[in-house]
Design a protein that fits this description.
Layout: E1 4-5, E2 37-40, H1 46-63, E3 69-73, H2 78-95, H3 101-105, H4 111-117, E4 120-125, E5 134-139, H5 150-166, H6 173-180, H7 184-200, H8 209-217, H9 239-256, H10 259-273, H11 275-283, H12 287-296, H13 303-307
Parallel strand pairs: 1-4, 2-3, 3-5
Antiparallel strand pairs: 4-5
The structure holds zinc ion.
């Protein structure tokens, strides 16, 4: 099973510049007409690029087009991935001349690693030290590969992260973290449920797709410890429990409120009010109360009962 890489702030390859200088032209979080840019390694077939474009279009039509956004598509050839890394650092330098080119080249999660291990990930670049803010999505050729059905929902998942982060304006890392919930339960749960929900609604997708996917995620219940809250699970070894049950928590929140309350209301007010106040205002209870009910009541039910709350 693929694991989606948590977002990484590439502070290591950036050197400080005056972060105030660009604020007048800072249109972070505004809907944009500018489409995403696509870059691919030389061994990536055109059909793979087209597939990624198609699912980006599905996502941005549904959730709005945000950016600046780049997709980098890696194949399985390591040499081709290295060349793509060179191109990547050239583009970074073009977009932000203040970056440290060596730091960019030596970054730990480079395309060579994606060529070897696969996976997908979003890198949100927005911080006080960078002259350029934007989103960089990396897609690879395995875990999942373009021939797997999961590739499509993973593309939607990554784009939902773009939507989430586009709604947090601050360049300060702590302020941004305070609005994402930091641990994966909320941000990954949200991206995963929204991606699967949107995918399930596409033409030709079997009617029971969402039920089957969400039932699979309930297997993570066995790994949740007695009295443990999904909120406390970090990225890493046990992170997938928070991805899976976080997706269920978002389904639960939507069932208690509405899809619009989650997808629109919460994010519209997130930046101004902060996580907790936006949560209470849009979902009618504190996140702690909601999590308590989720763990103590909802998750204790038979599977068939739980599956009834899934959105159509
Ligand atoms: Zn993710």
């Amino acid at each position: 099973m693929y694991k989606v890489i948590p977002l990484v702030f590439l502070t290591a390859c950036l050197i400080p510049i005056n972060s105030q200088s660009n604020d007048k032209t800072d249109d972070w979080g505004k809907l944009s007409r500018k489409k995403a840019e696509f870059y691919a390694a030389s061994d990536v077939p055109k059909s793979h690029v087209e597939l990624t474009k198609r699912w980006y279009e599905v996502a941005s039509r549904e959730w709005g087009n945000y950016g600046p956004l780049e997709f980098w598509i890696v194949g399985s050839d390591v040499e081709a991935a290295k060349q793509l890394d060179d191109q990547y650092c050239r583009i970074r330098k073009q977009k932000d001349p203040s970056i440290d080119a060596k730091g960019c080249k030596n970054r730990s999660h480079n395309f060579e690693r994606y060529a070897k291990e696969g996976n997908a990930g979003l890198n949100t670049q927005r911080n006080e030290h960078s002259g350029w803010s934007g989103f960089i999505v990396t897609m690879a050729s395995k875990n999942p590969g373009p021939h797997e059905e999961d590739y499509k929902s993973v593309t939607l998942h990554e784009y939902f992260h773009v939507y989430q982060h586009a709604h947090i304006f601050s360049k300060n890392r702590e302020e941004r973290d305070s609005r994402t919930g930091k641990n994966p339960w909320w941000i990954e749960g949200g991206a995963e449920y929204m991606a699967q929900l949107l995918y399930s609604r596409q033409p030709g997708v079997p009617a029971d797709y969402l039920e089957v996917k969400m039932a699979q995620k309930l297997r993570s219940l066995e790994q949740l410890q007695e009295g443990e809250s999904i909120r406390d699970i970090q990225y890493g070894r046990r992170g997938s429990i928070a991805y899976d049950l976080g997706a269920w928590f978002v389904a639960f929140v939507i069932d208690k409120s509405s899809e619009d309350a989650f997808r629109i209301g919460f994010f519209q007010e997130l930046d101004r009010l902060g996580f907790e106040a936006s949560f209470e205002r849009n979902f009618g209870s504190t996140s702690e109360q909601m999590l308590k009910e989720f763990h103590e009541n909802f998750l204790q039910q038979p599977k068939a009962e739980m599956l009834k709350i899934l959105a159509k």
